[in-house]
Amino acid sequence: MQKSTHSLDDWFETPLGRYLLQQEQAFFDKAVADVFGFNAVQLGLGPYDFLRLSRIPLRFTADRDGQVKVKTDFLHLPFESNSIDLLLLPHVLEFSENPHQILREVERVLMPEGQFIICGFNPRSLWGLSRILLRRSGESPWSGRFIALPRLKDWLALLGFEMVAGRLGCYVPPFKQEKWLSRFRFLEAAGDRWWAIAGGVYFLQAVKRVQGLRLIRPNWNEALKPKKTLAPVRRESKAKVLYLKARGPNPSA
Q1: Residue 205: closest CA among 119, 79, 109, 104
Q2: N or C terminus: fewer CB in 10 A for the chain?
Q3: Which domains does the chain have, with CATH numbers?
């Protein structure tokens, strides 16, 4: 069973949700621009296009419902194995009853050397503290199951993923009012420098590694070597050939 994210979509319309969305959109815009391939998929949060700056030609959003191109159950993705070059998971795992199965599906559909990017709420932060205080209220995002970053890294390592990039963000305390969010906006730069592990959300970029896979590259050194050619043979003039025939064999020979 998976939890509905409709309430999370509504929460993104609040001042705190808009602040978070601004931080996440900036990270995804930068991260996806450097990933190349043919197929890119965003799982969840259909109203928000985190693939908008991707250079991959075929890109779309898949979700359980809403105005999306593909409707799917995240536990059983309708994509062929080894078919996706880039996959985004914005706040998918913490609202699923079976995050391990989602990660197994991600590993299945990604091509070798394919990449995926996760963003999730950090339980070891002021946002995580707010979840402890507000989780019984049933409100998003506090009703989700925040996953600690070290635990998530362990899960990915067991599936053969290699972490290639990551960061934390949203150091402003989770105030509901816009005026308080603005007053504490200075913590964004200070937190990234002084208490980087306490950001309200984390971003993690990983690559699917396959043992025994060897990339074939052109042998440029061999191509630059001079090619073997036939040496030219010096031809005697016709007059000299007639003279040697008339002279006959060399007597001293």
Answers
A1: 119
A2: C
A3: 6-208 (3.40.50.150)
